[in-house]
Amino acid sequence: MEKREARFLVGLGGAFYPEHHPRETWQEYIRLAGELGLKAVRIGEFAWDKMEPEENYYDFSWLDEVFSLLSQENIQVVLCTPTAVPPIWACERYPEIFPVLEDSRTFGFGVRRYTCPTSPAYRRLCQNIVEAMAEHYGKNPVVYTWQIDNELGHPFCFCSRCLQAFQEWCQREYKTIEVFNEAMVLSFWGQTLKKV
Ligand SMILES: [Zn+2]
User: Fold this and answer.
1) CA 157–ligand 1 middle distance (angstroms)
2) Which of these, 37, 45, 159, 168, could form a disulfide with 100 (CB 3.0-4.6 Å)?
3) Distance from the CA of 41 to the center of ligand 1, in angstroms?
4) Could you read off the pLDDT of 136-163 as tens digits, one per residue?
5) CATH code given to domain 12-93+118-153
6) 174 C-alpha to ligand 1 centroid (Å)
7) Phi and psi at residue 99, to the nearest 5°
8) Distance from Cα 7 to the centre of ligand 1, integer Å
9) In sequence order, what are the beta bridge partners of 57?
10) Phi, psi of 32 (to 5 degrees)
11) What is the C-alpha to C-alpha distance for residues 118 and 162, in angstroms, rounded to an integer?
């Protein structure tokens, strides 16, 4: 494995969403950021639809342009994998990627984190996009480091796959229901569980 020297980001950083702004404004925007002394930007966590506009078709040209402009200003990049927001084509083609909420409703496209972590289609699509990003940007010197996904957690998925995976994890982790009850302090409010 390649050994990399530890580096430290020093200075001001911020989130940057070039995909929100017209392309012709990028150069001036980034020049001004450099002039203000910005040292790093976090980029890409909600731009899956721009990086993979169709399944297995990747377009990093716009991001290459942004990175080149940032490099001219010595601004480094924290590159984010965009897996919290699958594109509309993914949602329409693979509706199993939507999570099931506690009350059995499906949480759908239109916000973020509309994903079931155990969905085979979602996991395959995530692997495809992050591998494509790693191949394209893995050696790019402007990329200082990576952010993996964005704010893991909510909403939790209660689909049968996730429930079974959670129960199997509990079984491996705690072995018996008594150990589980104790670890979760379920004697509080009479919440002790019993194996059926
Ligand atoms: Zn699920």
Assistant:
1) 4
2) 159
3) 32
4) 999 999 999 999 998 887 789 999 999 9
5) 3.20.20.80
6) 22
7) -80, 155
8) 38
9) 54
10) -65, -40
11) 6
